[in-house]
Design goal:
Strands 1, 2, 3, 4, 6, 10 and 16 form a seven-stranded antiparallel beta sheet that branches. Strands 5, 7, 8, 9, 11, 12 and 13 form a seven-stranded antiparallel beta sheet that branches. This protein has a two-stranded antiparallel sheet with strand order 14-15. The protein has three helices and 16 strands. It has a single domain, classed as Jelly Rolls (Sandwich). The chain is of the alpha+beta class and 234 residues long.
């Protein structure tokens, strides 16, 4: 059965002012509006595609698909960015992780990273999360804590710099998702990885806090105790 695809062109002029958005803890881009929710590639000829069915929840679950052609020019790299609801202060919001559902549609193994940027400085997650070739939907987790992000001023290579990372996290201009086996270079407005011919389905991009193992264990113990009491009464 052929896929149902909506092609959203990013080159159409916008006549209505877009309201300013900022990142918030717990926000989820699930694409159920059947739009890109402001994710874009900056390329009108290989834009972000919206698939209206076939996401992690199956029929009727929308998601976006990123495509790279692996050629020599623009469109050769797998990358998408969002400078609307994913800009803002990650530190004050308590956002320390990014959870993303991904499906590898075609191409070699992908090495996924995220990049945050602001005020001419850039962060990149390291190490990359490897997604096996032609693998089905899975949830990946990427740390957004300062000690887990490498920093660059756009000229030097990416290197540890907690102070620089905290400065970007507190006033990020946007977020990128990209494929990069080695540490990327800066170009085209942000971090850029290697050329690759690949397709990647993306859904449920979630701004998550650090898990609290102690509290989760406590709640699990309370639940178990309640079940034991109910069984005793039965």
């Amino acid at each position: 059965m052929p896929r149902v695809r909506l092609l959203l062109l990013v080159c159409v002029p916008v006549l209505v002012a877009t309201p300013v958005a900022a990142v918030t803890l717990g926000q989820v881009d699930d694409f159920e509006t059947e739009t890109t929710e402001d994710w874009q590639t900056g390329r009108s000829f290989i834009p972000v595609f919206v698939e209206v069915t076939g996401g992690p929840d199956g029929a009727g679950d929308a998601y976006i698909e990123l495509v790279a052609d692996g050629g020599a020019g623009a469109g050769s790299r797998l990358v998408a960015f969002n400078e609307a609801q994913w800009a803002g202060d990650y530190t004050s919001e308590g956002i320390t992780r990014l959870l993303v559902d991904v499906r590898h549609g075609a191409g070699p193994d992908l090495h996924l990273r995220v990049s945050l940027y602001g005020n001419g400085n850039f962060l990149i997650s390291d190490p990359a999360v490897v997604v096996d070739a032609q693998s089905d939907w899975q949830t990946i987790e990427i740390s957004l804590e300062a000690q887990d992000l490498l920093w660059s001023d756009g000229f030097s290579v990416f290197a540890p710099n907690t102070e620089g990372a905290l400065a970007v996290l507190s006033d990020a201009q946007g977020l990128r998702v990209l494929h990069s086996v080695a540490l990327p270079t800066i170009g085209g407005g942000g971090a850029r990885g290697e050329r690759v011919a690949a397709e990647l389905g993306v859904d449920n991009i979630t701004a998550a806090p650090e898990p609290a193992p102690g509290m989760l264990s406590f709640l699990a113990a309370v639940t178990l105790a309640a079940l034991v009491r109910l069984r005793g009464r039965a």
